[in-house]
């Protein structure tokens, strides 16, 4: 219903009643009495109708889902690959353990590697011009085990397609001691297992 139409309807409802107050024996009622004679109960009914009409017109719109809110310094990541918040640190380079501790203090953990979202984070890492060129992500192995696991405890597939050339190097000489995974500038921003004590950048992730 259009606003002018509704307002007209409401004015009609809340004005002095006419139909119910029309005397059955019109000729027997003085003009002055006709104009001022109240009719018990009719105004209350009209008021109730007006309230109903207002409640229909001004009823609250359906509640919209709350806008996701990321922690300060974090950016919302949202597409078919997932929905979470992330923060890439490129100024303050840290060891794997220190980087993970910072992410946990901020309510999350290091970014869990995902084949679906990796291209975006690879591109983001490539754009960085800060102090740190490589970036820890949430995958590691506990020596002397050879299998990498993610921060969620799930296995990082050996066929993860974003390992750098000849990586992981866990079975090759010095590579045996490389147990933490990073996006490595030296490998075209693909994954490399490196020494956990190296100080590099890192990517934190918090779930919504
Ligand atoms: Ca490196
Ligand atoms: Ca390596």
Automatic annotation (TrEMBL):
Organism of provenance: Sinanodonta woodiana
Alphabetic keyword roster: Disulfide bond, Signal
Gene3D superfamilies: Mannose-Binding Protein A, subunit A (3.10.100.10)
Classification via Pfam families: Lectin_C
Record-linked PROSITE patterns: C_TYPE_LECTIN_1, C_TYPE_LECTIN_2
Protein name: C-type lectin domain-containing protein
Annotated InterPro entries: C-type_lectin-like, C-type_lectin-like/link_sf, C-type_lectin_CS, Ca-Dep_Lectins_ImmuneDev, CTDL_fold
CDD domains: CLECT
Domain of life: Eukaryota
Residue ranges constituting the C-type lectin domain according to the UniProt record: 81-205
Signal peptide range: 1-21
């Amino acid at each position: 219903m259009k606003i002018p139409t509704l307002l007209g309807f409401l004015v009609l409802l809340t004005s002095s009643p006419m139909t119910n107050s029309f005397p059955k024996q019109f000729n027997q009622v003085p003009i002055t009495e006709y104009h001022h004679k109240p009719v018990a109960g009719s105004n209350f009914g009209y008021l109730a109708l007006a309230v109903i009409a207002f409640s229909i017109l001004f009823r609250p719109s359906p509640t919209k889902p709350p806008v996701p809110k990321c922690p300060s310094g974090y950016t919302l990541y949202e597409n078919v690959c997932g929905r979470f918040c992330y923060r890439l640190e490129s100024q303050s380079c840290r060891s794997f353990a220190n980087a993970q501790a910072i992410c946990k203090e901020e309510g999350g953990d290091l970014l869990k590697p995902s084949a679906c979202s990796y291209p975006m984070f690879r591109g983001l890492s490539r754009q960085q011009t800060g102090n740190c060129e490589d970036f820890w992500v949430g995958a590691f192995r506990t020596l002397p085990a050879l299998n990498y696991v993610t921060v969620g405890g799930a296995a990082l597939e050996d066929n993860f397609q974003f390992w750098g050339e000849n990586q992981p190097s866990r079975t090759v000489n010095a590579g045996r001691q490389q147990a933490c995974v990073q996006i490595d500038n030296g490998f075209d921003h693909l994954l490399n297992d490196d020494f956990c004590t190296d100080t590099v950048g890192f990517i934190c992730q918090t779930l919504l």
